[in-house]
Amino acid sequence: MRKQWVTAVVMVALALAMTVPAWAGCKVQAVLTGNHAGTGTAEKKMLAATLKSAAVNKFEVDVSGAGAGVIYAVMVSTNTTSTFPLGFSTVGAFLTDSLGAGEFDLKNSAITCDIQRVAVVSSGGANTLTGKLNGLLANDDAPEVQNEVQNEVENEINNLIQNEIQLQPHPQPEPQPNNVVPSP
Length: 184
Description:
The structure is a single chain. By secondary structure, the chain is of the alpha+beta class. Helix 1 runs antiparallel to helix 2 (143-167). The protein is rod-shaped and about 115 Å long. It starts with a helix and ends in a 17-residue tail after the last helix. Helix content is 22%, strand content 33%. The longest helix is centred in the C-terminal third of the chain and has 25 residues, at 143-167.
């Protein structure tokens, strides 16, 4: 029975170890380019829950040089073959600052990991930045973040093993015969 418990603990430990890195298969960045002024980046990411924080998913758009004081609509498509504007839905908007920089964040949306294409369109429609978010998983977490996640996994594995050892019944030592020679 003890071997089965140890095997189970080892399997759980392996499953936990395979969850690193914390990004749960959804972290992709795209460069946004357009027909006029400005450039930008779009990023979708989903952070798996850890011992210290709940799961979070986030979609971010950042632009620069896109004209001062301009309202931009952020539009997305979950279809890899859509051509703007067909198949795109507006998820929000932002206003650029005096330098033409602006940002947009969408948190905890059900479609975050499904977003494939992004279009950032100026209020008059004259300037459009687009990009594709269907690339490979990017793990650009800082090394200290990766180390922290790895340490959390190792600590959880050690805790599971210690708890399992404590739950196991400890065998009582058998009484040993007394080495005294009986007197006649």
